[in-house]
Amino acid sequence: MASYSTNEFRGGLKVLLDGDPCIMLENEFVKPGKGQAFNRVKLRNLMTNRVWERTFKSGESLEAADVMEQDMEYLYSDGEFWHFMLTDGSFEQYAADAKAVGDTVKWLKEQDVYTVTLYNGAPLSVTPPNFVELEVVDTDPGMKGDTAQGGSKPATLSTGAVVNVPLFIVIGEVLKVDTRTGEYVNRVKSS
Amino acid sequence: MTDSPVWQPTASRGALKSRAQQLAYVRGFFCERDVLEVETPVLGRHGVTDLNLDGIPAEVKAAGVQGGWLQTSPEYPMKRLLAAGSGCIYQIARVFRNGERGRRHNPEFSMLEWYRVGMDDQALMAEVSDLVCGWLGCERPDQVSYRQAVMANAGFDPMEISDTDLKQYCEQWLEAEQLADLSRNDCLDLVMSFAVEPTLGLERPVFITRYPAAQAALARVSREHGHPVAHRFELYINGLELCNGYWELTDPDEQRLRFDADNQQRKAAGKPEMAVDEAFMAALNAGLPDCSGVALGLDRLLMLKVGAKAIEEVLAFPIERA
After folding, report:
1. Which of residues 280-299 of B touch A (CB under 8 A)?
2. Residue A94: is it exposed, middle or buried by C-beta count within 10 angstroms (0-12/13-18/19+)?
3. What's the pTM value of the predicted model, to 2 decimals?
4. How far is the alpha carbon of A141 from chain B, nearest alpha carbon, in Å?
5. ipTM value of the model?
6. In order of start, what are the domains of chain B with their CATH numbers?
7. PROSITE patterns, per this entry (chain B) (predicted)?
8. Residue B53 distance to chain A (closest CA, Å)
9. Do residues A123 and A104 both lie within one domain?
10. What is the pLDDT of residues A152-162, one digit of tens each?
11. Which of B51, B43, B50, B49 lies closest to B68, judged by CA?
12. What are phi and psi of A175, to 5 degrees?
């Protein structure tokens, strides 16, 4: 397996640290003019999502982690695994467990495309696109005279996600939702 | 790896203009003081022996010369000029150090180096203050010894602490197995970089003086309170190391010993030994006049002038775009 020396360190590098795959977030190079150089590095552990800070003496190296991000279409869930397929035309399928899917489960819609992070060839995490469009399956009826400035109410979407929506939203409408904040963005005009 | 090339500069037009003004200021400063501007080779036959300076090798083929190095500093050729009777001299040089890239580092940078015949380190510090404060409009620097600076910020005495206690202190940054092959100087550099430097010169500029003799480089050494200390100084402003100066070592025998010691350290660290620049040694043997010299990072001075957080803000093209 390849390794990276301190002079190759940079943000985005995927490395193994204490046996776990990590992504390098920041790399600060320090060196007194005539003195020994060190790299102060921030890394996110991809298994735990914890951020680590480590220091390396110039010339040390870290093993590269076999981590790849791939676009995949969500197919279906069999209850135990969530199945995805590469969008590169290879039809290759991957099964992600509940740990890999994590909170993204509430944004999973069949045939939508997600970023699946593979570690040693197996799904490690699934990231939704920033915005998804989902249908409202349950919400209190809208009230007459409500305007866009009015209050809000919870609405349950087809994936099970619950988001706060304006009072005028009714069952059957398709909403655009920001997956990073879990917030309603707007109604999507049905074609 | 698949990044598409970016052609635009990283410095704003304002920063480029400040750079030009800074060059004019520096030349005016030395012209007024009758210090001669010189140019020495950027491409030399020899590298340096310093353990922690990695030169960039060149592939020269001319006049029987093969190989060569981009210079890490113009120190040796400038001292040869001094030995030849140049009198006080300065140079604005491009210098090169391999592997150095960060918020404050680029492998190629601009160095202002000057030598004052007959001055000691105190007199040269006063001149550095004139130059820097005249340009930045800052307060004149305080002076704090290396020992005081470490004691105040790290809480131990760098002259007295045992190697074991020093390593234990460093465990806040490094694992035991990483510390195993660090020397005493490496550990002190670690403490300097992480515990001391960030606090230096925040309220007003500060000269750190009287370095441990083991970090003397090319400075002369004398005893103070029973400890050998180097007549070496560095200026810090806003936590940024700006210059490194010496009351210069003129003794060729002592110089030879230090080169040999450097090469032994290089060997121990698994780095190639570097041939000693015998032309420089011959100049020392002929006689270097009593002088002090200092090297100042012009890109960093410009960072302070324009309030830049990263060196690329004052470079037209850092190495990734060069």
Report:
1. 295
2. buried
3. 0.85
4. 51
5. 0.88
6. 13-141+201-321 (3.30.930.10)
7. AA_TRNA_LIGASE_II (PS50862)
8. 7
9. yes
10. 899 999 999 99
11. B43
12. -115, 150
